[in-house]
């Protein structure tokens, strides 16, 4: 028992050291950026593959650049429990978003390997190459390829330098015509489980190191355009103006109020606004803004979208503005499977932590993996709830707590009973 406790205690230190080592791989030293199909992607992939092989896994890159490791069970060729997360980043990122889940999974397998422990099933660890969608404006590329839902038209998307994904894959040494070879089928996976930082403040507010994820919230993104009439800032009376920017401002405060007063987890963000002609002494004749809406259930989010559109239509009518609203992105809510949630909760409790459920407002690779496997998630507390920022941080004790829970989950994992 003392040996097991010592082994668990060392996991957190190893994980933090590797987080720092991986975090040093960046396109610039000023800020962390590790983007799909770049030299930094290759350096990171090679580093992770080395860790996987040292942990006793067979490991290689797949057809889209995911790093994939397999640790066989008691009998070779058995279906796997798949663990993973992503290793790409946003620009000016933190070190923990994605890599914590991937590195923790590798460390757990290494612990099993040190003890020559084989299970009735295989374990596969996947580091997804592109979850963030920074370079080609399409998210979950690595996990969609694994799930067999990769859309080939995305290969024609171009980055800011005009390089297509098709060309970038070829330049990386991958064949864009073989992305489909990364696809897995449902029978090969017993489940997909992901450990991830919370990226929010709830666990910290609850003074908890870990939490059981109930669902990954769906998201709807809209683009709104208000058209009024530009005019001279000094000659058009206030009551005769058709000011598109003022109308957008009212729409934005309306959206905020509707979300703020919702009691069922709805969140809304206007992250971009642009007014034209953009001169100090001209009344804005046109304004564009985006809306991002997320909720724990699809029905709730869809009702909220309809309600918000009705409200901004009313603003436009009252201000004599033309309104156009288009849906630019929609992801369904992904519920975590009850049988997996129960096992995650049991592992949390067995490690001496209170069991606390919470939804994820951020998207994760599980949103793609749900198409071929039931999904479960474990959250680890992050300092201040800060993410997608250089100050993103996880304390050593919390990284260790997440590793202990994940290792216990793996060792006590039971596949879903047939017929359920």
Textual characterization of the structure:
- There is one protein chain.
- The chain has helices at 2-23, 39-54, 99-114, 141-147, 165-172, 202-206, 244-260, 298-318, 338-350, 366-369, 396-411; strands at 58-61, 67-71, 80-86, 122-128, 189-197, 210-216, 218-227, 231-232, 267-269, 273-276, 282-283, 286-295, 322-331, 334-335, 357-360, 375-380.
- With 420 residues, it is an alpha+beta fold.
- The protein folds into 2 domains: 2-215 and 335-411, Aminopeptidase; 218-331, Alpha-Beta Plaits (2-Layer Sandwich), CATH 3.30.70.360.
- Helix 3 links the parallel strand 3 (80-86) and strand 4 (122-128).
- Helix 3 packs across helix 11 (396-411).
- It is globular and about 80 Å long.
Could you give a quick summary of the protein structure above?
By secondary structure, the protein is α+β, with helices and mostly antiparallel strands.
